Amino acid sequence: MSPPPARRGGSLIAFLAMAFVVVGLTGILATYAAPLPLARALHEEAMVDDALAAGRTADIDAMAAALGKNDEARFGGAATAAVNRAGDLPARAAALRAALRQTMTAEAEAAAWRLRFLIIVATTAAALFGAALIGAARR
To answer: Mapped to the 3 state alphabet, what secondary structure does the chain carry?
Structure first.
C-alpha cells in the first residue's frame, strides 16, 4: 500500500533538501582547502626571513633549488629564473620571496578552479538526483 499523497510529497521534499545539504557541505569542506597555498607561502617566507636574518646562504640556495624543481614541473620555470640570479644574500632572498609569491598565486588560482568545479559537479548531481526523485514520484 502506498503512502498518502501528502506524506509522499513531504518525504520527497525532505529527500531533495538533503541533496542540497550535500552541496552545502561540499562548499564548507572546500573552504578548508582554499587557504592552503597562502599558508604554505607564508610559512616559506618566514623560513626565508629566518635564513636571511641568520645569514645562511645555503638555506636560501636549498629553498631556491626546491622551488625551482617544483616550478619546472608545474609553472614552466618562471620562478627558477628569478632565484638563479647572482647577487648578495638580500637580493637573492628578495628574488626568492617574489618567486614564492608567484608560485602561491598560481597554486591558489588552480585550487580555486578545482574547488569551483567540485561545487558545480556536486550541485549538478544533486539537481539531477532531485529531478529523478520528482520523476519517480509522478509515476
So the answer is: CCCCHHHHHHHHHHHHHHHHHHHHHHHHHHHHHCCHHHHHHHHHHHHHHHHHHHCCHHHHHHHHHHHHHHHHHHHCCHHHHHHCCCCCHHHHHHHHHHHHHHHHHHHHHHHHHHHHHHHHHHHHHHHHHHHHHHHHHHC
pLDDT, tens only, 11-43:
777 777 777 787 788 778 777 777 888 888 888
Instruction: Decide: 12 and 112 in contact? Cβ < 8 Å.
Output: no
Q: Which amino acid is at 75?
A: F
Model pTM above 0.90: no
40, 104 contact by CB (below 8 A) = yes
Three cell numbers written together for 74: 608545474
Q: Name the CA radius of gyration of the chain, rounded.
A: 25
C-alpha cell of residue 108: 591558489
Residue 67 contacts residue 79 (beta carbons within 8 Å): yes
